[in-house]
Amino acid sequence: MASDVPMTPELEQIDGEIQDIFRALQNGFQKMDKIKDSNRQAKQLEELTGKMKECKRLIKEFDRILKDEESRNTPEVNKQLNDRKQYMIKELNSYVTLRKTYQSSLGNNKRVELFDMGAGSSEPTAEDNIQMASAMSNQQLIDSGRNQMDQTDEAIARSKMVVAQTVEVGSQTAATLTQQTEQMKRIGNELDSVHFSLKKASKLVKEIGRQVATDKCIMGLLALIVFGVIAIIVVKIVNPHNKSIPDIPGMAPPAQNFQTNRRLLSTRSFRGL
């Protein structure tokens, strides 16, 4: 099956490596019929098993890149790439079945682990489970089913725990948001009070300014009057005979009145004698 699907350079490289492995598997199984020694056949089968493991790894890498690029591709391209992946899986499964046939002919009842899940590897896919189930006995299938159920129960329990923790975190977040909302309301009320106080203080400052200006005017007029009176007094003292400046009451009584008073006092004194 020639690949006419549009691929990125990385996918094309992986696809090419997988096709090389398929050709090597085809040639290797053709040589199996020509090998008569069972030990050499077992060794050849072991080498082919290693190539199938590498092919499985490359298919997983192809699938990973395909999922990363799925959002950037059109639905048609994604469908073609998925079909290409399914073709690779079916092709590999055919060689897996062929390997099991040769393995049975060699009398090797020990199942060779094709998909070796080492530390840090991903969980088996649906295709892996189908391939492994075909080589299991009924008891092994039952045990595997029980293990799968136990793992499913554990996963459900973990999911419930995560959900409970999520609900608790959500409740705490809601309570925190409620407190923050109330605090924001209080801050808003305080800002309104501050704004009102500032407006009131501004009006009061303006009134005080007007009063101060009025007081300054009055004080200025009083100062002018005082300075005028002082100036008149000084001029009158310096030049008492200046007729252009009127006499200030109580400061300089007329001379004629003073002489008349002296005569009246003299007359009264004489009469008393």
From TrEMBL:
Cross-referenced InterPro entries: NPSN/SNAP25-like_N_SNARE, Sec20_C, T_SNARE_dom
Pfam families: Sec20 (PF03908)
GO molecular function: SNAP receptor activity; SNARE binding
UniProt keyword Coiled coil, yes or no: yes
Domain T-SNARE coiled-coil homology: 146-208
UniProt keywords, alphabetically: Coiled coil, Membrane, Protein transport, Transmembrane, Transmembrane helix, Transport
Residue ranges that the Swiss-Prot or TrEMBL entry lists as coiled coil: 45-72
Membrane topology qualifier: Single-pass type IV membrane protein
GO CC entries: endoplasmic reticulum membrane; ER to Golgi transport vesicle membrane; Golgi apparatus; late endosome membrane; SNARE complex
Biological process according to GO: protein transport; vesicle fusion
Compartments where found: Membrane
Membrane-spanning residues: 218-238
Main location: membrane
Family, as annotated: Belongs to the novel plant SNARE family.
Protein name per UniProt: t-SNARE coiled-coil homology domain-containing protein
Native organism: Lolium multiflorum
